[in-house]
Predict the 3D structure of the following.
Amino acid sequence: EVQLVQSGAEVKKPGESLKISCKASGYSFTSYWIGWVRQMPGKGLEWMGIIHPGDSDTTYSPSFQGQVTISADKSISTAYLQWRSLKASDTAMYYCARLVGATMYNWFDPWGQGTQVTVSS
Amino acid sequence: AIQLTQSPSSLSASVGDRVTITCRTSQGISSALAWYQQKPGKAPNLLIYDASSLESGVPSRFSGSGSGTDFTLTISSLQPEDFATYYCQQFNNYPLTFGGGTKVEIK
């Protein structure tokens, strides 16, 4: 079974750094793109960026370029989303999801269960 | 970026009703559209891909249609477990974009 399991909820202060994870299982991790999607409280889905774990090729949404870093460690089949300096406006649920198929031009399936990030002083 | 406009943003319907949700894109995307269902506190779940292909395991009361700029998700007979928020997503161009969502509520 293809599965993505995300790290647990985080509560951080503004200015702190954070790295959340998404562990993949049930398929060849290096063969499929993995993306990250933000959902702010009560709002819709926003695509943040994707990475190909095979060669670490990464593409970001212009809205998130420079704000976050996406990475992957193929030795442990895990993708990451990282912030250097969190803001209150980063408070949201973050989902990882695998792109179906070998190319970037595909839909997401499956999704991780989500990681809630709360940034508050 | 391609904008996706879903309508309505919310609707109230009864069990057994036929429900139609529309997704309009700001430029043509051929059939590169997916539909997801999201229930409160849960991750989105894939329903339809390539505009009209039903994901394995998804009930046949769900169907998708359209190409170019106008797309439709139809639930032929609404069931209690279908009350949720539905999103469209285009994958023809980067950045990938989602519609704003349609919340389906119980009348």
About this structure: The interface with chain B takes residues 35, 44-47, 50, 59, 61-63, 95, 97, 100, 104-114 of chain A (CB under 8 Å). The first strand of chain A starts at residue 3 and ends at 6. The two ends of chain A are 40 Å apart (CA to CA).
